[in-house]
Amino acid sequence: MKRIAAVATSLALGCGLAVAATACGDGGQGNAGTASGKVGVVLPLLTSPFWESYNRYVPRQAAAQGVDTLPTVNSNSDPSKQITDINNLLTQDVKGLVVSPLDSAAITAGLNAAQRKGVPVVAVDVAPDKGKVAMVVRADNRAYGEKACKQIGGAVKTGKVVQIQGDLASVNGRDRSDAFSACMKKNYPRVKVLEIPAGWQADKAAAGLEALYTANPDIRAIYMQAGGVYLAPTLSTLRRHNALRAAGDPRHIVIVSNDGIPQELDAIRKGLIDATVSQPADLYAKYGMYYIKRAMAGETFHPGPTDHGSTIVRLPGGILEDELPAPLVTKANVDDTALWGNQIGKTS
């Protein structure tokens, strides 16, 4: 640690920076060391096209950055299994872990086990409530809810709007739900928000929307917090009720989503949904590997702007999070080739 601090201080002076322990051109991070050893990658589930895409990006990014990963492990939507998966990887003498937590509180047991073994952890997509991680690689999930609110509120000034929520045991589900509801209450007081707690599960989304639409056929908009699992059941339910109308039809139900999967982009092109927030599956894999490689080499990180268009912030409790950009996608930019959802099927 003394060597790292000395190198970082020298670099800071060389760059004319006032912030200590940072390096030139490294986005506010410390000086890179040499990392070695196997890395375990733990997925939350593989029943969503979003996580399938992330799973495809992981080995590509690992190879590109010289990170030696074991085959990814699927926790299959079970927080208890996720802790077992982490413990199993630790018995295989991994030197680093990249984990996408299912439950922001429950993951602490796995983080503590890794800390006891001296194994650094990078969390991807979901921030833990507490525990030691080198970095959280994530986008601003409150911004997801606010973007959806403004997109829907701009089109629907009054009436009933449905929010199909994620798992409220996850900080992502809480952030998206709280931000959407608060934005609606503040900016669109004539809109009534109805909620479906679906826990990132397609069957719960389908059953909840079926019951809600049957009781409220005057629903005017839907916010899906995870298009990867909610898009298909939502469109199917509306189609069954003869309520799936393309944009431009006076009976069109405005739909805004999160994820940015190819299926959502196709639905935007067809006018079946209006927008999605492109959650960066490609960048999650890229910077998950970026940070675990450096954490294994003994680096520490600091708040501030990065060299890749994001900002590292300090969360309550002291955990650091690199908030990656997540653009809103509408018909105006759905064909942008920079969107990962337009690239995933075209790369080997």
Give a quick precis of the structure.
It is built from 10 helices and 15 strands. The chain has helices spanning 2-15, 49-65, 79-91, 108-116, 141-155, 171-187, 202-215, 227-240, 262-269, 281-296; strands spanning 38-43, 68-69, 73-74, 96-99, 121-124, 135-139, 159-165, 191-197, 219-224, 254-259, 275-278, 304-305, 311-314, 320-324, 328-329. Strand 7 (159-165), helix 6 and strand 8 form a beta-alpha-beta unit.
Describe this structure in words.
With 348 residues, the protein is of the alpha/beta class. 39% of the residues lie in helices and 19% in strands. The protein has 10 helices and 15 strands. Strands 1, 2, 3, 4, 5, 6, 12, 13 and 14 form a 9-stranded mixed β-sheet that branches. A hairpin with a 5-residue loop joins strand 13 (311-314) and strand 14 (320-324). Helix 3 runs parallel beside helix 4 (108-116) and helix 7 runs parallel beside helix 8 (227-240).
